[in-house]
Design goal:
Order of helices and strands: HHHHHH
Number of strands: 0
Radius of gyration: 17 Å
Number of helices: 6
Helix content: over 70%
Strand content: under 5%
Distance between the termini: 33 Å
Amino acid sequence: MAVLLLAYAVGKAAFALDSRLGFPGGPVVPAAEHDRYARDVMGVATAQWSAVASGVAGACLALATVTAPGRRVPRPLMLAALAGMSLAIGAGAAIMVVDGFVGLGVGWQWYHGVLGLVVIGLLVATIRSYVVATRRVAG
């Protein structure tokens, strides 16, 4: 999961350097949407650099679930962070899956849908691994 999130951050950084919306290998963002986003929401580069930061933060969180320092984080706090991560990543992956196989008009293809399923599987495995490893044994 950490490698996947770092790859996401690198892809977003590549687009941030060009002030482009989207992700390498993903659907093309129409020029009108690009202009609207830059005008009404925030600068395109700022949005992409924010996505880079979230990718790096997610990778750190994923690593924290399997390292000793991360396991010392209070369990409720880590579970809340993992829940937030699962909502954000899960929503993006679900859109890739649905658009890739059914079509929502975003532009994701079937192979993006497969990648979305892999992402969801890795996300579930990451959370399950943490929950199992930190389960309190009734004594």
